[in-house]
Amino acid sequence: MVAIEARHFGDWWKSIDRTLLFVVLALISVGLILSLAASPAAAVREHFSDPFHFLYRHSFFAALSLIVLLAVSSLSRRNIRRLCALTLVGSLALIVVTVLMGHEVGGASRWLRIAGFSLQPSEFLKPSLIVMSAWLFAETRNGAPIPGRVIAFGLYLSSVVLLMMQPDFGQSILITLCFGGVFFVSGLNWRWMAGLATTATAGVISAWMFLPYVATRVERFLNPDSGDRYQTETAIAAISRGGLMGVGPGEGIIKRSLPDSHSDFIFSVAAEEFGLMASLAIIGLFAILVARAWMNALKLTDHFAQLAVTGLALQFGLQAVINIGVNLDMIPPKGMTLPFISYGGSSMLALALGAGLMLALTRRRPGAYLRA
Q1: Quick one: which H or E segment has residue 295?
Q2: What is the DSSP letter of 52?
Q3: What's the half-sphere exposure (Cβ side, CA atoms, 13 Å) at 303?
Q4: Confidence band of 2 (pLDDT split at 50, 70, 90)
Q5: I need a surface site. Which of 6, 39, 72, 360 has the fewest CB within 10 A?
């Protein structure tokens, strides 16, 4: 039994893209380090008696995410499709439950309270929708007797409608961009692409007209004097104070007054304590992750794997861009985690699922890659 397990591990180790694996592990490690820096101030602000409350929880989810990452990365492509189909159906069902009886924060119902933990189903919707859409687009191209594009667009529209009912405009935008990216790479039909663009435009206009919080955030971004911009201005102050090399680990003071310093604004904590060089290193890790995944996707022989890897990498890249852009006051504020670095159990587990899927689809199997 031990010999069989060792052989399976050896096969997995030889076939896995170790560059992608090490980059993901590096991001998880950076998240733990920054959680150590940011969590005490957040715990005090949230009136927890233990200053390391968030660090312990972050470490727990990081360990659990590592297990998910390794387990999913060993799956076959058939099992990947099965897992994502189940995850997609489960996520949509849980979002319906969340809309009806979810825990409300700031006027939005996006979380379910389960045994003392908060579950955000929309996080698991993203990777599963990307993979299933990739499979449906690939099946259509391969001549399968199913209306793949119709089903994919139906799943996408159902997802966005449910997200907007929470409401969650940011996740809707991210899903739209990832879905559009997968559709574009699949060999777009201009009529379908025009339909997607029209739908997205109508959604943005509707959000502006009927969701006051969306309009308010955009107006504050365009006109800083129109309302409260405390979080953004505090984040910018932290980044400016860090300078080139930072003030030193644990020496940041602005994090004490920065809401969500351990989650949405953890990049500002990194900039204050470790400086510009560390901030650029974090950005570099995400750039390597996306570039490496796309390089692999170009060489894959399976169209489904190409589309899925492209979409999953795009999700990582866009989510990082959105989070960092908010910290730098380059886009309107939106609650979006920095992948593997921000505190958040649902986000961490869902990102581990996505990274595991990406690693599984890029494994070196016989015939998986084009010959040089």
Answers
A1: helix 266-299
A2: T
A3: 14
A4: low
A5: 6
CA–CA dist 95, 87 (Å, integer) = 12
Q: Which two three-digit tokens encode residue 109?
A: 């119902």
In sequence order, the 6+-apart residues with CB closer than 8 A to the CB of 282 are 27, 30, 267, 270, 338, 341
| Two structure tokens written together for 167 | 């409401």
* Strand spans (E) along the chain: 103-105, 108-114, 117-119
> Distance between CA 272 and CA 179 in Å, rounded?
35
The residues, any chain, with a CB within 8 Å of residue 179's CB and separated by 6 or more, are 129, 130, 133, 152, 156, 196, 311
The whole-number average pLDDT for the span 44-52 is: 86
Question: Phi first, then psi: what are they for 114, rounded to 5°?
Answer: -135, 115
* 31 class by beta-carbon count within 10 Å (0-12 exposed, 13-18 middle, 19+ buried): buried
Chain centroid to Cα 311, Å, comes to 11
Of the candidates 323, 324, 321, 316, the residue with the CA atom closest to the CA atom of residue 358: 316
pTM of the predicted protein model: 0.92
Angle, alpha carbons 344-346-350 (nearest 5°):
120
369 forms beta bridges with 300
Q: Which residues contact 153 (CB under 8 A, 6 or more apart)?
A: 192, 195, 196
Task: State the CB neighbour count (10 A cutoff) for residue 209.
Answer: 10
Using CA atoms, how far residue 352 sits from 13, 25, 312, in Å, is 18, 10, 11
Q: What are the structure tokens assigned to 176, written together?
A: 């739209």
C-alpha to C-alpha distance for 98 and 109, rounded to whole angstroms: 6
Tokens of 309: 């890897």
Share of the chain above pLDDT 70, in %: 91
Q: What is the pLDDT of residues 116-156, one digit of tens each?
A: 778 899 999 999 999 999 999 999 888 778 888 899 999 99
Beta bridge partners of 118: 113
Q: Tokens for 137?
A: 């687009």
Q: How far is CA 172 from CA 15, 123, 166, 237, in A?
A: 35, 11, 11, 30
CA distances from 221 to 193, 204, 217 (A): 30, 16, 6
Asked whether the predicted pLDDT for residue 110 surpasses 60, the reply is yes
